[in-house]
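Annotators were shown the component list below and the corresponding predicted structure, then asked to write short factual statements about the assembly.
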Amino acid sequence: MTTERQSGIRIPVAIDPNPMSNEKNEKLAAEFCDTFQRLRTGMEKVLVGQDEAIRGVLTAFFAEGHALLEGAPGLGKTALVRTLADAAGLDFSRIQFTPDLMPSDIIGTNLIVENEHGRKQFQFEPGPIFANIVLADEINRATPKTQSALLEAMQEKHATVAGVSHPMKKPFLVLATQNPIEMEGTYPLPEAQLDRFLLKLHAKYPSGDELHEILHRTTREVAPVVTPVPMENAPALREFVRAVPAVREVEARAVQLVLATHPDRAESVPSAKKFVRYGASPRGAQALMLCAKISALLDGRFHVAKSDIDAWALPALRHRIILNFEGEAEGITSEAVINEALAAGGLS
Amino acid sequence: MRQKLRQARRRLTGEHFLGLAAWALVLGFSALGILRGVALVAPKSPNLPLSAVGWLFLLPLAFAAVVAITHWWSDRRVAKELDARASTHDRFLTVLDLSTAEPAGLTSTVQREVTRFAATFSLRQTLRLQIPFRRYLWILLPLLALAGIEGMRQIRQAQVAPEQIQAKALLAAVRKAAEKHPEDQALQEEAQKLEATETQLDTSLEPLREALRALADLEQSLAAQGQLTPGESRALADALSAANPQLASDLRAGSQEAAAKSLSQLDPESVAKALEEAARHLEKSRLRELSSQSPEEAQTRLVKMVSPSGENKSNRSRFLAQVQDLKSGSSQTQGEATSAPGEGEGDFPPGKKKSDPGENDQAPPGGSPGSEEDKGRGSDLAGEADPTQKSSGPDEFLPGTSGDGASLVEIFRASGRDDPEARQAYRSAYDSAQPAALDSVNREEIPPGSRILVRRYFEAIRPKE
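Structure shown to annotators:
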């Protein structure tokens, strides 16, 4: 039985290295697939035409990462996050980011309260960030100071108020949305902060048939209700995901993809050399590997393949590549650089 | 899983060998073509023996086999290739790598899953043997066919070479005989036929057979016209040795006049008996034909055949003896046998070889005449690299302060969108200024939050198509 050291506590992990536990591992894998599929089905009852975004959000959920959703208004970004919370039966809070939003508005603050003895004392009043699933709506409308407060919580999984550290709930998932159209009065997330997001997902515009389906569901029928999926074993499932092995040759694929986006590396692709200012960070490789492990389990495998890594290259790396001005002036996108890196690796 | 890897190795090795073998064959045929070309241009160049031609193909094929086997020797390489080609999702490579590492986590479960996968995995669909150069088969197949035909021709030519030498010697003998005796119509006709066939002797056995057939016809016609052949004389002499030893010795010695005289004085019955006995030893001889006739008639004809009828007959008999000698043996006397009958030189008794076997063998060498002048390939058409095309190295930032250099000021008389000329002028100005602007922007440390504004500015001033 392996253990993991976290916050000084040894937590038993579900993975048993004993070869005799094959059945147990297979059962755990089946449970993971079942849970994932049930969550997905539940979300698809409400959301139409957002399959890729749903899969990405659920992957981020099991990988213990955060996701940034980008899309035009009205594409169901907020509904997607709320539906996930409903389907998983977890605490949900929504923060509407505005320019006058303060860090304390999201983290919480110390209030002076009277105790039963009539003495006044500080009591921490937690903000909306203390929930399992936090929707940071239009995150680019808040000032960098407020954004930083949220991002610290995302990375460190705790918030510090008046010198006291308050841990986040488990699981803790921030799903931020931003609108790419309205740029006036916004504070685009700095690249260093964007890097904290495991995935950047695009909410795509629905097709004609999907629009018909949306109309049918929202104007004729009663809004569908999502049945919560039992998530008691979710921590074990998350640990199980991390135990999925990847051999060095497969890991090399993730490494090669990340290095190919750097302009000054031998592995870089031509477009990266010309149009990229900074390439993807090591967090990009971590994100690739974690998402690939989930894909492998969903595919019925217990090991990561190169194709799993390639499948997540765009959502995991697109927000980690900073173009130079030449690239931006030429209208080059980070997706184009990633696609070139994928093609250069022989698999695309 | 290991079994699948072994099967995959066999298939990959076979496929690799086929590819390399195809290249080896192409190279072999090319080399053969080059050597053939060299032989045509320079006839004195040594002929490539047939065994060397074989090695020209066998060695590359053996090399291809060795390379293919050694290339796919490693299990890891086979697994990697298998994973790359089939939708195995790196299963084989993963299991191989995990099996060499310490067992941990899901290792055993991975192995179990891959074993199950391997049991249902069909290699036949994944690793189909690919025909090399399949796209170019429509060009290669006719070329290969031509090369094959040429190869077969070479082999046949090598096989018929000794017989060709013999046949040429025969033809030379016939030619000289015809030159010496222009009045002999039959000999002239046969010699013409042989001349016609000689030109084809280099390429196939068929003209040689025709030549030999023509020679046989010539021999038969010459023999039918007159005298006894040496064999017939010997057989007749043997048959008459008991009845008339003198006649027998005359026949053996070639004293035709005396023999004819003695024969005419003999009893027809005894001549008939002698003919019958001689015919028993010679199946296809005119003696048998004579023996079937009446004794008187047979004696009269035999006397005519034995009696001398001038130099022409003597030459014929000598020529026939020479042809028989050549046919039976033989290139051994070909050096001297080319001398014409009746010419004086090379005069020897019928049936006796002048020279020892193998001596003075003057057979013509192989090869064909051609120009020895080699004009070469001429100048190199590929040319040399143009040094002016080389990169001048990485871009450099020039020293100086921004704004100190020359400035670009242009006045447009109308908005770019309204006036095509102004639009063109604006595009020209934009193209001139863009590098300097990018240079300047790259130098500045712009806050990340403001970069979007700079980007929007540059997008806004970009000339519209």
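Statements collected:
1. The first helix of chain A runs from residue 22 to 46.
2. The radius of gyration of chain A is 21 Å.
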